[in-house]
Structure formats: C-alpha cells, structure tokens
Amino acid sequence: MKKANISILGITILTLTLAFSILTCDNGTTSNTDTTPTFKPVTSITNVPTTGNINEEITLSGTVNPTDATNKTISWSIKDDGGTNSSLTGNKLTATSIGKVKITATIINGLTSNTDYTEDFEIVISDPSVKYTVTFNPDAAGSQWTVSVISGQKVSNPGPYAYSGHTFSGWYDAGDSLFDFDTPIISDITLTAKYDEIMHTITLMSDGSVYDTYNVAEGSTITAPVTDPTKTGYDFVEWRTGSASGSAYVWSTPIMASLTLYAGFSIKTYTVTFYDGATVLNTMTGVNHGSTISKPTDPVKSGYDFVDWYTNSGLTTAATWPMTITGNTNVWAKFSVAVQPIEIYYTTPGGAISINTSQILLDAASGAWSNSTKIGGWDGTLTEEQCMKAYLYVTSNGSNSTFLEPGQEIPNLYRGESAVLCDKFNGAVPIQWYYYDGVIYYQGGGPSNDKYMKLVVIP
Questions:
Q1: How many C-beta neighbours within 10 Å does residue 6 have?
Q2: Which own/partner contact pairs does 106-109 have at CB distance under 8 Å and 24+ positions apart?
Q3: In the structure, how many helices (H) and strands (E) does the chain have?
Q4: Residue ranges matching CATH 2.60.40.4270 in the chain
C-alpha cells in the first residue's frame, strides 16, 4: 500500500492511496493484482426482542448473519405501532398500550454494495398487571379447561386433542376462524376444538362384481342392504368376510377400518318327479342347478308297454337326455297297452258257435292277411281293423249277450280309449254287433251265414 501526493507549483491538490501487489509470473516478469475485499451481503437478522411491557424501555438489538457480512450496522424504525402508542429513540422502544408493534431493521448497503437490507419484526407489548382467561373447549371429546394469560401475551398452543374416530382439525375462536397462537391475548376468549370424522369405505362384492359401497364414520355400525344380491341358480345366504366362503359378518361390529364384504351363495337344489298320469313313479331330490340327469330305467306296468318319457302331462313333448335341470321338474311316462288280440266272429245271431283256428284271416305274427284260409270262396277282404279306432282289450266276461248299435262303445272290453264300431261290412252291407262271453260278434250279409270268420286285431 502506498500513498501518492500530486503537487502543482508546490501545492498538494490530491492524495491517492494505491493498493497493489506484485506477483511474479512463471516467465520471471511481474504483474499488478487488485486486492479489494469481496462484498458479503446480509442474509438475516436474528435474536431480535419479541416481547415487552408497557411503559418499559425495550432495547432493540439483533445478530447479523453471516457474522462476516461486509456491513452490519442496524438502524431501527417503527413500521406500524399497532395501537401501542410506541415511540423509538435510537434503539430504545417504549409503548404505553398493549398490542403488537411492527419494527423495521435496516442495514445500509447490506444487501449489495448499493442496496440496503431490511427485515420486519413484531414485538408483543403486554401489561403485567392485567390477566385474561383463555378457555379451551374440546367439545364432545372431553371437559374444558382454562389458562390465565398476561394481557398482550400469547397463549401456548395445547396441540391436538384426541377424539376417538376423529382427526383433530384445530382450535377455533368464537368467529369460527382457526386461531393464530401468535395473537396477543387482550380479552377473555374461548377456543373450541374441531374435528373431522375418520371415514372408512365399505365395499360389497357379489360374484366378482361391486354390488355397493358405503362411506362410514369410524366407530359406527352398518346394516345389511335391503335388497339381497342375486345369482342365477343360487340362493343368497349372507354377507361374509374374507371371501364368499368366509365367516358371516356381524353387523353390530363397529367399523374401525375400510372393509370388503362378500356375498355368500348356496346352489339351488331341485326335485325331479316321474309320473304315470297322476301317479308318482319315482322322485330325485337334491339335484343341483345346472346339473344333468340320465334317462332312468324304463318303468314296468302290467299289461302295458313303455313308450317314452315326456315333459308335459299331455305326452306331446318327448324328453331329451341327458336332461339339464334348472328348476323343479316333472316327467311323465307314456305307455301303450300291450298286444292282447281280440277274437271277432262273424255269424248268424243266435247260431251255433264253433271255433276253427285254421280259419284265422289275419296272421298276428306277420300282420298280413292269410289267403290260404279263405272261407267258402269269399275273397277275404275285411275292413274291420280300420273300423276299430282304438285298441280293444277284454277286461271281463259277460254272462249274457249285449246287442250293440253301430257307433256305440264296447262295454267291459277295453282300457283307455273307447272303440267305434263299423256300421257297414265292406263299406256296403249293414252290420250288427253284439257281445257274448267275452267275444265280439257281428251279423251281416257275409258270403255264408252259417260260417264264421275269426279276426285277430294287431295294434
């Protein structure tokens, strides 16, 4: 560092202070380098007083950060006295009323070499001779309590208040505003705790799909849905935990967490009933929905041949096997009367009857007319079988002959449907029918009234 005075005509007119250093370069030469200190800005001011009492002098001071800031001298000013009637002399602050006073700290050229650094602070002014009561009301969660606070001082935040099934949201003043615990207490106040219910989601699942959902407050209970879920082929049983095959849910259980419930079902079972008319032949119980059953063994009925199974009592819709069961099912057996040939004779009324089996005109085995048994040159053309509109079967024998008019039913000779008798022989000759000793006779103008013909009717 060197000082240089410039003189003109022996008069010094300027004095300069020159600061430089001589550096030796690698090549042996020298250079001049400026060593002016680097500027360090202020970043913050801490440890400033935050409280004071009325009519008492408060000394304003603070710690400048960083400690090696280039400029650190603080000057103070009142930015807003907040109704405290504050005054400031140098760094001495005095207030005559309680409240908050806002002051500003300034460091000239503290931020940059030509920009000031400023920061605001609040000081709470209290009156030690006056105290106020702060009442804390936890509402439904518990009993209230009080705290005595010096006027102008702040009340300590007691923190969250525990309330089962709820989360604490804060302490609120009489205006229903969240209370700021940096606020000076200047009157009696009541702070009330507010809470938010803890909510849980209840999800009801049915057969892999969401059936319904509920949002439920913690600690409360829920009730079963009014309408039960449905599943084809199944009966709803109950709502269960864990899975559809889990344990039954107890609806009186308080809800303490989100929960998923599952619909429990049991498969429907049915009864399959096999009928002969109105008579029950057999039943199958406990048949699961959607399962199949095989065709049962053909039933046996004396005097009848089994035809098939039908799904309607009118015996018009044949059953299909295997049969898929989707409900209670009725199946009906259809029978045809077993072949029991009836002897029909042609003779003169009251004439003597003798049976000659060699003169059977219809072969029961082949169902064909036998031309070798023609009688008296007659050509053997008979239409009686076409005239019999239903099967005739002897069920009992009569002891007396009964004359039958054409078109009448034959008594005691059939089961099931009635028979209609022809009134013409070969479509031309009138015929009279009568019944005697279990045999049907007819009288007409055949080729020989003293001969008889025996007809075996094959169904």
A1: 10
A2: 106/74, 106/75, 106/76, 106/77, 107/42, 107/45, 107/64, 107/69, 107/71, 107/72, 107/73, 107/74, 107/75, 108/71, 108/73, 108/75, 109/70, 109/71
A3: 1, 33
A4: 45-197, 200-267, 273-337
Name the nearest CA neighbour of 92 among 119, 46, 52, 42: 52
Q: What is the mean pLDDT of residues 205-231?
A: 95
Cα-Cα-Cα-Cα torsion 274, 277, 279, 282, nearest 10 degrees, comes to -10
CB atoms < 10 A from the CB of 349, how many? 13
H or E element in which residue 436 lies? strand 429-436
- Alpha-carbon span 1 to 254, nearest angstrom: 86
DSSP-H helix ranges across 291-417: 384-387
CATH number of 200-267: 2.60.40.4270
C-alpha pair distances (Å), 373 with each of 26, 361, 413, 448: 156, 6, 27, 14
Query: Any idea which fold 45-197 has?
Result: Immunoglobulin-like (2.60.40)
CATH value of 273-337 in 2.60.40.4270, 3.10.450.10, 3.30.70.100, 2.50.20.10:
2.60.40.4270
Average pLDDT of span 176-201? 93
Encode pLDDT of 160-180 as tens digits: 999 988 999 999 999 999 999
